[in-house]
């Protein structure tokens, strides 16, 4: 490549556009211009597209053939607005934004009119001024995928009454092979035999990866879990069986988020179906149901599982075997949903796409009222826009430092089936009862500055899909305003 002899700098892309501009002005084809300067059309095409830089001799020949001067061809200013837009679009598309957004490459050919070029250039130039980054976009995509996958799976679970007959069958076959009947929690030998039935063995080790609950060597068929000092018996049983569930259910590796989520749900279901066997558990629950004394605590104690597992297992069996539609919630200290299920008609709060995870329930629901309750299990009736419901909420995992609330509930009409279904505690969470005082909001919205507490669930820091980002993500501003109102003596 030879630079101009006068040492000036020029832009090969602009040069190409200026050559094309003058060629078209002279009404010449590439072949006709090529004959005049003794260069093939392919050479001139690459030159006009900015892919090569001509020697000064060729440049002089081009200027003469096009009736202009060398200095005019080397002018750094595009010959017209159309050429300027094409150049800017080409350069903008070669930057990081097209790759970050996974956008197709647009070639500014004759079919792309000037208005479309103006729009594309304007959009690309606006990107650096937006709050977008590679990490942010990746998180938004992951969030969107998670919301969609959770919604699809929750819809299927509702249609099935959260009962998966095929997993129950695999669990029952595994139980029969180990000799465990489901009368009380399984012994260490039962667990070993369960795992051995599927060709694996358990090995407790030190130094497990901090991000892994278990690690399986599928060649040696060993399931590694932390030693007893790091993982108690109850947690170890769950981890082993959740891991074994992947192999018992013949899961294959997946890179699809919905597939990953489904596998996690199925393996957890398998673990619960083994630890709380269907046949034995249904007999136990049927007796309690007949006496109006259903209790998740009893199921928890009988099988030595967590309250969450007992509650979730109850949802698997309640509708299919007891004829009870129910709802289930797992929420954090602020009432933010991390898991939810219902087939009893309770309308959970959701974002515009129907997603629940990361959305906060009403402050008057049992899931939030339980945190201030002095009782081990907080029971209450709640009036909502969609009807009246009863629920029991238990705060779990307090000792480990990351507590959460587990709620099981049903319609008010079915409350008599449960222990605590006769509670006199009632709350109204209808829209009209929850409406905030507009004068209070006007008084405090420009002077309140809350700092969000730590959250263990990542979606609480994100706005629900379709909403603007709040300056105080994760904050219930109405609660903040009510707090300030009380402190100021206003209510």
Q: What do you see in this structure?
A:
- The structure is a single chain.
- The protein is an alpha+beta fold and 491 residues long.
- It is 46% helix and 11% strand.
- Among the domains are: 12-73, 434 Repressor (Amino-terminal Domain); 81-129, no CATH class; 436-487, no CATH class.
- The strands form 2 sheets. Strands 5-4-8-7-6-9 form a 6-stranded mixed beta sheet. It has a 3-stranded mixed beta sheet with strand order 1-3-2.
- Strand 7 and strand 8 (404-411) form a beta hairpin.
- Helix 6 (81-93) packs across helix 8 (114-126) and helix 9 (134-159) packs across helix 13.
- The longest helix is centred in the N-terminal third of the chain and has 26 residues, at 134-159.
- The protein is elongated, with a radius of gyration of 33 Å.
